[in-house]
Design a protein that fits this description.
Layout (H helix, E strand, L loop, with lengths): L13 H7 L12 H13 L10 E8 L5 E4 L12 E4 L2 E11 L3 E8 L10 E2 H8 L15 E6 H7 L8 E2 L2 E2 L11 H5 L15 H5 L7 E4 H7 L13
Antiparallel strand pairs: 1-4, 1-7, 2-3, 4-5, 5-6, 7-10, 8-9
Helix pairs in contact: 1-2, 2-4
Length: 241
């Protein structure tokens, strides 16, 4: 017997729900961080926030070669217990950067993660790293659990990403209830499937983003992310080294 997968309500879309949401946090669907990040980025790129800074937006995949990445201050755990953490196989957030001029030209970066308890929102990059990965300074930590960060231009991710969510659908049941709108299949439609309705398409390129290896990727260590979070940073995120 073939598994029947729910496809969402065709009258909705990731795009329409992103633009109609009153806030970034109202877009959150637990355990679908890649789609949360997709819609948060889409919302900011296609609406007027009133911020006069020229922000550049990125999608950041957080994982490591063992797909075991401890993170603190995640909404998957109670806010009142700072000792608790989640060990994600991957997590996805939005990052934005802008040029600022003090004495000289530097790059400032902020994190937009609707799955974190860390405040304020958006969060300065250094603060987000401090509170999400406090264990990283433990000398006894097995270094294989340190995070890596795959940074992708948000415009490219919005255009190229697709997922039928089947990594969350096992034995005829969802591991966690999916969003109400149909799966995001934009990237697959760009590959020559324009004649099919989005909710009829299947497949996923999610793993290609989770992987921290591959030609042309901008992958950073935690130490390198901290270097880019300083007040003296002058490098754009598209400068991978």
């Amino acid at each position: 017997m073939n598994e029947q997968r729910p496809t969402g309500r065709p009258s909705l879309s990731a795009e329409s729900t992103a633009l109609q949401s009153p806030s970034d946090h109202d877009l959150r669907v637990a355990c679908y961080c890649e789609e949360n990040a997709w819609r948060v980025a889409y919302r900011h790129l296609h609406s007027n926030s009133g911020d006069n800074r020229d922000w550049k937006y990125y999608i950041v995949f957080i994982s490591n070669n063992h797909k075991a990445c401890p993170m603190f201050m995640q909404r998957a755990i109670p806010k009142d217990d700072p000792r608790e953490y989640v060990c994600w196989d991957y997590h996805v957030i939005v990052m934005r950067s802008a040029v600022q001029y003090n004495i000289e030209r530097t790059i400032v970066s902020e994190i937009l993660d609707v799955d974190t308890w860390v405040t304020p929102y958006p969060t300065p990059l250094s603060k987000y790293l401090d509170e999400s990965f406090p264990h990283a300074t433990d000398p006894n930590l097995n270094k294989q659990y340190l995070p890596l960060f795959n940074v992708v231009r948000a415009e490219d991710f919005i255009k190229d990403f697709y997922s039928d969510r089947m990594h969350m659908f096992k034995n005829g049941e969802w591991n966690s209830p999916p969003p109400e709108y149909p799966p995001i299949m934009n990237g697959l439609k760009m590959d020559g499937n324009d004649s099919q309705e989005r909710h009829e398409l299947t497949g996923s390129n999610l793993d290609s983003y989770i992987s921290m290896s591959g030609e042309g990727k901008c992958v950073f260590t935690l130490a390198e992310m901290y270097e880019r979070s300083t007040d003296s940073n002058k490098k754009e995120w598209t400068e991978c080294s």
